[in-house]
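Form 7-S
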Amino acid sequence: MSSMKTMGKIALFCISGWFSSLQAQTLLVYGDKADTIEINATKDLLKDWKQSVKERVTMVPYHAGLSTSAYAHIIYIGTAKSNSFIQDYTQTHPNGKFSKPLEPETFVLQTTSPKTLLIVGADTRGTFYGIYDFSQKILGVDPNTYWIGYQQKTKDKLVIPELSFRKPAPVYKYRGYFDNDNDLLANFKGRKLIVELDLWKEIINTVARLGYNYIDIHDLLGRPEYYLRDYYIKLTTYHTDLKLVDEVIDYAHSKGLLVQIPMYLGWEFKHITLDQTCLTKYYDLWMETYQYYLTQTPLGKADLFLQRPRHPFYDWAYKCPEETAAGIRTGDLMNKMFEGLYQLLQKYRPGSVLFCDLWSEGRPLWASGEFSPRKDVEMLWADNGHADFKEFPKDLKGYSFGIYIHAGVWYNNVTQSPYPDKIKEAALMGIERKMTHNFLVNGQTFKNFLLNLTACGLCAWDPVSFDPELFYREWTSRYFGANVSGDVVKILKWTYAANEPIGGFRNTMNTTVQLLNRMQKKIVTRESMDKIDSTLQPAAQAWQLSEKLLPVIGPDKRTSYIDQIYFPAKIFYLDQELLKSVLLLNNTLATDKNNTSLVQQQAAIMRESLVKLREALTAGSGWDKWKNFYLPENFRIHTPPPDLAWVDQIINGL
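Output:
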């Protein structure tokens, strides 16, 4: 009998030990009055923790009888309104980081005991920014992991340092990612011309962690060229997927981001026609179409709306010959249109914000005073691409202003042109001119411009503290290794230098195609080699150094390095080599067209250059996740590499 009791005690001890080993070491306590966004952010932290630390973790809502004695770490999450524990703590500890009210979107990370930490947001958005900040700095979770393939090391256990940090308020109130010219991202998998939901979720997850607070789903609505231009019509029969639009908006809202809709009138699912432009005739139709957007589609769930004093359909100047002949001013018509749209938003989406993008001819309209909508409309001043602001408005005229900046431009939407220093400079110019209501970032194909997108997120929040050189070093060390950081920075800077004279991958290819068209038409004149020579030098340096570094890249960073550095440097260099070979053939035809042997020799070199580029693009970087991303047929209409059969036809006709 005694023996059985002893065995029972041993069994009980073993079972107790087994349950103890399953007990979570960390408890995440979200608010008893938490909203869905706060709960979702806490789930993100739970997921991050499980991926980063082998210790067990769980999450529960706060309640008065919550027992925490069995846990090594307890993290209370939320705002003073959403989490009663945090409310009690901030009321009884009114000093230190809580001595002043938190500014919107900010947070505090505060250690209160050796095992207790508070993540306190000023509001819901501040809460999730606090979670993501903790996750990045303490757990080592990288915002760009999905896109770059960064592999963090899993810790056996986590020692949370003592924290007492209060995030300063963001300089720019609205900080948005603008989805535009994303053909490579939209075409490499799934349906053509559509970024599918799984990728949209990753975009939204990333920009939230980078400090953005809204997204603009421009291309998802169906650009006019998708259903009007032969290039795209041959690619696919396009229709806007409004169910997907709805899902993307809902997902963005579930993560705490606002959603912006460009209120143009050319979207595939519902559009006016090109001959319905004149506002004097079709004002009511414009308004009916806007009303349809707001009442019959998911667009009515958006928070922010964007319009411009331009053509309603294409990226053109507004023009109506009949109105011009009658002496009717464009600005007056645009004032009326903006007022009508504003009133519709007040009726169907009260509390939303209407932004105006002053781009191209919108600028002289603004400067002249002819265009002056109500002051509730907030203005955006655009760069000229590549964060290059050549001019600013001389007078803000009492309007709230922000800036619209490009992290990438369709001129170089295949290979990045990094310029964190110019991004900082632009952000500081916005501060100097009191244009800090908005920081809208055009990200193009997203994946190819992560460096600039990250720099934009940091500068939109705190440009004064942003150090471009330190940012370069940290970026390259994290993703590619401290041992190669200095050399990779050189590659990135050479890439930018190579983009400057030629204008990026697209301008290079566009020049190539134009020259080939002239050869086909027998219109050949000698061309200067100066621009290509000045571009090829830094492009070659970048490519050669990227090759040299490849053997010393760590195995855990090799995929990231090839995809982000080695491959872009290679295809940009091959793009320049192709243009050089076309120029040499062109000049041979211009000066020695009767030297058949020389012409054929140059033609063969040119053809081989094209074959090398197309083969490299088709093969891609070798990362299975992005297989087919760079296929020539996935390119935007401006400008894919020429078809080999067409080039052979030209060569045979020389």
